[in-house]
């Protein structure tokens, strides 16, 4: 797809953009915040639905499906990692063939199917021939093989749907702002802030509402509500069809398709003799020469040749150092829904005489911090920094990402200090071997580490989204956002592997850092390790960020104007 900021033409339309009928897109009647509002609403609904499944999934796996904690955690990590890596495929398909709009519609339909199947799977009977046991909560029966298989099939259909939905919706939303227009360029930077605001608002509502429904009313309704929400979101998205700006997908395919073509040609050229190779070069040059003109963007020219593939591949590869130096951030991010929650479960969580805060509900402080801080960042920090830097966004994308990584490092240091204090309280009160007895230490001790994670997300998460959208080749922006998501998919797998290796190593030496009795473990050591790795990562990131050269937008605009 072409860049949303390709340029302006004399009749008031946006260069390279078309409306829903294929006519040049009018700046006055298409794009901007009006169109972006439909798309942001869809993203809020999608995040509500996705976290409606994932946030409390381990409870369903260990409860209704009767899986052990280790098996459930392994299954959850595998599913989450897969869901974060599939956008690489979805983004490539959108950029190469389907286009973002059609991919969003198709992915939404798959989402509705998967969520509907999840809701239906909760009503499948376990069958009278399966073993049932009596527990404190009543009679529990082992699920049938059909129920488990149907559930996991449904779950991975949801992962496939996210793989198509996630990279395209945000790129399609950013496409509604013309980068060559000064006013719309500022709005596009603001769009990424409000986009993440909407995401976190949807997540916060999910953590409060759906967790209660699933735990206290029923899982069928708990999975059915996200299905209904996604259906309504698709309807809202379709309502905006007439207002969107569209960019034509290249018929020859995306980066992966051109990679295959280039490899096939390389193989054929290796088999050909020198004279035949020279003849092929002349034939190819003659065939391609008429396609070029002085008024066409250099990147558009490159797409039709192998040189175009090489250029795009290099443009993707130059992002790798930034991608790689953000992986430890993703590993630290993964702890907020695992060990942070385990810590909270051991503390005094009472508010008043009758209410006890669920441990997982503390994750809402991350979303609440983001919802509160994004308007402050957008309306206060950006204008003030813009005054000094002269940049529309106030600070550069890489500066923003680095600031968030530093806050994440601080969060891990505070988490380690809080855990050290928690262990000391357990020893001083004689509760080390009584893991089910709440420690006389308030859960509010843990709030700062959640708040710092939320503030870090405002900087790093949003910065990564904008960076990978902006710095990839213009026709591969869905793939660029998929690369951003893959950081957290790979980070999830790294976190799982790191925990497994450390668990085996420390268990062999006598006591696991991750003991089932957290009072005898040493999660604080793990946090210190992550803090040290985060510090090393930040140093490497700063080095690569300093030498990184941003894509030359000025040259692109000049070539279009020419």
TrEMBL record:
Primary location recorded for the protein, binned into one broad class: membrane
Compartment annotation: Membrane
Keyword flag S-adenosyl-L-methionine: no
Segments crossing the lipid bilayer: 104-124, 144-161, 194-213, 219-239, 319-340, 360-377, 398-418, 450-469, 481-502, 525-548
Annotated keywords: Membrane, Phosphoprotein, Transmembrane, Transmembrane helix, Transport
Pfam families xrefs: PTR2
UniProt superkingdom: Eukaryota
GO cellular component: plant-type vacuole membrane
Protein name: Major facilitator superfamily (MFS) profile domain-containing protein
Family from the record: Belongs to the major facilitator superfamily. Proton-dependent oligopeptide transporter (POT/PTR) (TC 2.A.17) family.
PROSITE patterns: PTR2_1
InterPro entries cross-referenced by the UniProt entry: MFS_trans_sf, NRT1/PTR, POT_fam, PTR2_symporter_CS
Any one GO molecular function term: low-affinity nitrate transmembrane transporter activity
Record's bilayer topology term: Multi-pass membrane protein
């Amino acid at each position: 797809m072409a860049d949303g900021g390709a340029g302006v033409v004399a009749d008031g339309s946006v260069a390279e953009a078309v409306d829903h009928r294929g006519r040049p897109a009018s700046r006055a009647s298409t794009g901007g915040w009006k169109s972006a509002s439909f798309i942001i609403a869809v993203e809020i609904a999608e995040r509500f639905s996705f976290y409606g499944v994932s946030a409390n999934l381990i409870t369903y796996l260990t409860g209704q499906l009767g899986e052990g904690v280790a098996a459930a955690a392994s299954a959850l990590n595998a599913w989450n990692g897969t869901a974060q890596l599939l956008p690489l495929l979805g983004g490539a398909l959108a950029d190469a063939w389907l286009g973002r709009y059609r991919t969003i519609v198709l992915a939404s339909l798959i989402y509705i199917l998967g969520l509907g199947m999840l809701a239906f799977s909760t009503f499948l009977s376990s069958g009278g021939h399966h073993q049932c046991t009596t527990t404190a909560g009543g009679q529990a029966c082992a699920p049938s093989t059909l129920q488990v298989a149907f559930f996991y099939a449904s779950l991975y259909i949801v992962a496939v749907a996210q793989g198509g939905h996630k990279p395209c919706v945000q790129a399609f939303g950013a496409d509604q702002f013309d980068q060559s227009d000064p006013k719309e360029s500022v709005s596009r930077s603001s769009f990424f802030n409000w986009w993440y605001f909407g995401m976190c608002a949807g997540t916060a509502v999910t953590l409060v509402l759906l967790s209660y429904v699933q735990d206290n009313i029923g899982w069928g309704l708990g999975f059915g509500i996200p299905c209904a929400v996604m259906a309504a979101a698709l309807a809202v998205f379709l309502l905006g069809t007439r207002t969107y700006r569209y960019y034509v997908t290249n018929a020859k395919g995306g980066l992966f398709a051109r990679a295959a073509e280039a490899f096939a040609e390389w193989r054929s050229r290796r088999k050909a003799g020198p004279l035949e190779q020279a003849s092929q070069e002349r034939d190819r040059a003659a065939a391609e020469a008429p396609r070029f003109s002085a008024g066409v963007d250099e990147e558009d020219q490159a797409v039709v040749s192998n040189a175009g593939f090489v250029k795009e591949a290099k443009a993707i590869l130059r992002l790798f150092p930034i991608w790689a130096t953000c992986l430890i951030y993703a590993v630290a991010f993964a702890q907020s829904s695992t060990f942070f929650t385990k810590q909270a479960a051991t503390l005094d969580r009472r508010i008043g005489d009758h209410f006890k805060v669920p441990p997982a509900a503390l994750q809402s402080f991350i979303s609440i911090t983001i919802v509160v801080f994004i308007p402050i960042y957008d309306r206060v920090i950006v204008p003030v920094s813009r005054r000094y830097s002269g940049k529309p966004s106030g600070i550069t994308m890489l500066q923003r990402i680095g600031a968030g990584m530093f806050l994440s490092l601080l969060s891990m240091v505070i988490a380690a200090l809080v855990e050290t204090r928690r262990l000391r309280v357990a020893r001083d009160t004689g509760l080390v071997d009584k893991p089910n007895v709440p420690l006389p230490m308030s859960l509010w001790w843990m709030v700062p580490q959640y708040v710092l994670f939320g503030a870090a997300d405002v900087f790093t998460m949003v910065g990564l989204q904008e960076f990978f959208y902006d710095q990839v080749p213009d026709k591969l922006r869905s793939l660029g956002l998929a690369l951003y998501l893959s950081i957290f998919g790979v980070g999830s797998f790294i976190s799982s592997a790191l925990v497994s290796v450390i668990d085996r190593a420390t268990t062999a030496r006598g006591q696991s850092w991750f003991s089932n009795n957290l009072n005898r473990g040493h999660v604080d050591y793990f946090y210190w390790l992550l803090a040290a790795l985060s510090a090393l990562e930040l140093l490497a990131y700063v080095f690569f960020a300093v030498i990184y050269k941003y894509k030359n937008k000025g040259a692109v605009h000049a070539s279009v104007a020419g």
